[in-house]
Amino acid sequence: MKAGDVLHLTRAASPQFARPIYLRLIRIHTDLDTYDGWIWLDGYQLDKKGDAVDRRELYVLTAGVRLLGPAPRT
After folding, report:
1. pLDDT of residue 24 exceeding 90
2. Which one of 14, 27, 38, 43 has the fewest beta carbons within 10 angstroms of its own beta carbon?
């Protein structure tokens, strides 16, 4: 995962995603302590059109994050 990638986050990533979301990744926090297999992400939550609607900082299970690929260039 790298900046600009679009991620699909569901309950597999964290119970907080009862409603799945899409996130355009800004960065992965490497300076924060986490449990093994978990990471902090910083990114923009996307709406159905792919537009950023909210900036989010999220704690997720790495194995549950689905990488969709780089964000489309406009």
Report:
1. yes
2. 27
Q: Could you write out the three-class secondary structure of 48-60?
A: CCCCEEEEEEEEE
> What gap in Å lies between CA 9 and CA 13, rounded to an integer?
6
Give the burial string for 19-41 (b: 16+ CB within 10 Å, else e).
Answer: eebbbbbeeeeeeeeeeeebbbb
SS3 label, residue 66:
strand
pLDDT (tens digit, 9 = 90+) per residue, 29-66?
988 778 899 999 999 999 999 899 999 999 999 999 99
pTM for this entry: 0.87
DSSP state of 72: P
